[in-house]
Every structure is written in structure tokens, then in C-alpha cells.
Here is the input.
Amino acid sequence: QVRLTESGGGSMQAGGSLKLTCSADEFAGYWAWFRQAPGKEREGIALYERGTKRYAPSYEGRATIAKDRTRNIYYLQIDNLKLEDTAIYYCAANPFPVPDGLSRPGEYRFWGQGTQVYVST
Here is the structure.
């Protein structure tokens, strides 16, 4: 089974930036990032879909994803952090594309353990 590991979380300043890393021990397929804030459902942030990058509306213009295929590493950068960005951030992967994947976290087979991000003023 594919193992995913997130890193890069911690305490961040509002208005600043963060960069999270998801490492896989082997090729994992199709990648996505999710977050789960206290008291809220898990929500999609960004994913790769049919050769393009798709972002949730709340992250358009301030989130960027990238990957290093040779190292099986997937990155998420978020700029202009907001207090409401405080959440546990997860990377996920699936052997096959997940249509409308940002709204369907349950369809992803492989998940990391999550990394906590705290945003404060």
C-alpha cells in the first residue's frame, strides 16, 4: 500500500506563507490536498486533473501546487494566510482520476496522517 507523509506544518503568521510537502514511498497516482478545520467537514484545496491544476475558489490566486515526479513529492504553497486557514492539512492520492475530486474526499484511497497548521496574528 502507498504511504503518504505530510510535513511543513506548524505555527504561521497571518499574511505570511506556508509550504507543505507530501512524500510518497512510490508512485501514488493522482494527487490532491485537503484540509479539515475544527467543527467543519474535510474540504478540497487543490488537485491535478487531466493535465491541469484545479483549485477551490477560496484558494484561487493564493495557492499553488507542484510536484517532483522523480522523487514522488507533492507540494502545496499557500500565500496570504488567514486565521481561518488553521486546520489539519492532508494529502491524498488515488490510482485513478477522481472526477470532481475536491468535493469527493472519500474517493481517495491513500492518505497521509495530516499536518497541523496554526495561523495567528
About this structure: The chain is about 0% helix and 50% strand. The first strand starts at residue 4 and ends at 7.
